[in-house]
Write a structure and sequence with these properties.
Blueprint: E1 8-11, E2 15-21, E3 35-41, H1 43-53, E4 58-61, E5 63-65, H2 68-79, E6 88-90, E7 97-103, E8 106-113, H3 116-120, E9 143-147, H4 152-160, E10 168-172, E11 191-196, H5 197-204, H6 211-221, E12 225-230, E13 233-239, E14 245-247, H7 260-273, H8 278-293
Parallel strand pairs: 1-4, 1-9, 2-7, 5-6, 9-10, 10-11, 11-12
Antiparallel strand pairs: 2-3, 7-8, 12-13, 13-14
Helix pairs in contact: 1-7, 5-6, 7-8
GO molecular function: kinase activity
Pfam family, one: PfkB
Domain Carbohydrate kinase PfkB: 7-297
């Protein structure tokens, strides 16, 4: 049975997250007790789950293997309130896995065994072009979250796609190393970028003193609107023709790190969909991310 038409589409990585966390600081080579979680993950999926937890109608577009791990993953995603009807299945590839090690100070190291998006190619975007959600003649007018795990050809295709010319595009890189691949989306009026400071500095092309400077620098490069987070330091929102807004997050005890940026993005989107202005939406996003890091919230 096909799910109802969603209001928001999240396009990108859908995989298993394997997260090991130590309750104490770790040194290189440390062998310590802790807890290991095996949960659905990926940037696009994490944002989708955070949106669903906040009452939004959302579907994810991506690719998983046609293996038991992929079937279990899609079942788990549906249980979290995210529609998977338009996911691609890849018989020739295993389902992707992301593995991370965290301690009380944050992320120690991570490895991504991810290949599905590249293997699927244009098939990932097909529902936005074939009339399922939109087409060149009848563009999608809803919100689309774009995950920086998409390949450069996929991102270039999105930038030039007439089926997305009316969409509200919300874009997030997967890591500082993948931030530059978002360059084709700079200069587009209907794109909002969600970056951490390192990612913003990559797009700006130089180091920045803080989130406000980094956000402003990305706007100078051509972005219409940019939100930049900087861990426990103030976050910023910059857009063409407007002042740069900044706000500091509340102090919290770190219980988890992975997914904080996704919660920030989802809470900001939900606040704006509810009519919040720039300052109120930034405040909602910062508080949601802080609650996530502390172990509270959805």
């Amino acid at each position: 049975m096909t799910s109802a038409r969603p209001d928001i589409l999240c396009v990108g990585a859908v995989l298993w997250d394997v997260i090991g966390r130590s309750p104490a600081p770790m040194a290189p080579g440390a062998d310590v007790p802790g807890r290991i979680r095996h949960v659905p993950g990926g940037v696009a999926l994490n944002v989708a789950v955070a949106l669903a937890a906040r009452g939004q109608s959302v579907a994810v577009l991506g690719a998983v293997g046609a293996d038991p791990e992929g079937e279990a993953l899609l079942s788990a995603v549906r249980a979290l309130g995210v529609a998977t009807d338009w996911m691609q299945r890849l018989p020739e590839w295993p389902t992707d896995i992301y593995m991370a090690i965290e301690d009380t100070d944050g992320l120690i190291a991570a490895i991504a065994d991810a290949h599905s998006l590249e293997a699927a190619g244009d098939r990932v975007l097909a529902p936005l072009r074939d009339g399922t959600f939109g087409s060149a003649q009848s563009p999608w007018h809803g919100t689309v979250v774009i995950d920086g795990n998409l390949t450069v050809p996929q991102l270039e295709a999105i930038a030039a796609d007439p089926a997305l010319r009316r969409a509200d595009l919300r874009v997030v890189p997967a890591s500082p190393g993948k931030a530059e691949r978002l360059a084709p989306l700079l200069g587009m009026d209907h794109v909002t970028l969600y970056l951490n400071r390192a990612e913003a500095e990559t797009l700006a092309g130089h180091p920045c003193a803080d989130a406000a400077e980094a956000a402003a620098a990305v706007v100078v490069r051509g972005a219409a609107r940019v939100l930049v987070t900087d861990g426990p330091r103030p976050a910023a929102c910059a857009q063409r023709g407007a002042e740069v807004l900044t706000q500091a997050p509340p102090p919290v005890t770190i219980a988890r790190v992975t997914g904080a940026g996704d919660c920030f993005m989802a809470a900001h989107m939900v606040a704006e969909r509810g009519g919040a202005g720039r300052s109120a939406a930034l405040d909602a996003a910062i508080r949601a991310a802080a609650a996530h890091v502390s172990g509270e919230g959805p």
